[in-house]
Amino acid sequence: MGKHSKPVDCSMCNGTGKQTYNVDNKTEQRNCPGCHGTGKV
Ligand SMILES: [Zn+2]
């Protein structure tokens, strides 16, 4: 259900396609696992 409706912003990354991690006082960006970096689901 919902997979074939219009794409919406990914809730895990708010549509950015990236997730930010803080590692040893540095910020790392990785592709969001929820939308694989597309920002849409
Ligand atoms: Zn996402």
Q: Strand content of the residues, in percent?
A: 25-35%
- Main sheet? 2 strands, antiparallel
* CA-CA gap between termini: 12 Å
Shape category: elongated
Low-confidence stretches: none
Query: What percentage of residues falls in helices of 4 or more residues?
Result: under 10%
What is the string of SSEs from the N terminus onward? EE
Bound molecules: zinc ion
Secondary structure tally, helices? 0
Kindly report the average pLDDT value: 92
Find the structural class using helix and strand composition. mainly beta
What does it look like?
This is Molecular chaperone DnaJ. The chain has strands spanning 18-23, 26-31. The protein has 41 residues and is mainly β. A hairpin with a 2-residue loop joins strand 1 and strand 2. The chain is elongated and about 40 Å long. The two termini are 12 Å apart. 12% of the residues are buried. The mean pLDDT is 92. Zinc ion binds at residues 10, 12-13, 17, 32, 34-35, 39.
Q: Which helices and strands occur, and which strands form pairs?
A:
Elements: E1 18-23, E2 26-31
Antiparallel strand pairs: 1-2
Bound molecules: zinc ion.
List its traits.
mainly beta; two-stranded antiparallel sheet; binds zinc ion; single chain; 41 residues
Briefly characterize the structure:
This is Molecular chaperone DnaJ. With 41 residues, the protein is an all-beta fold.
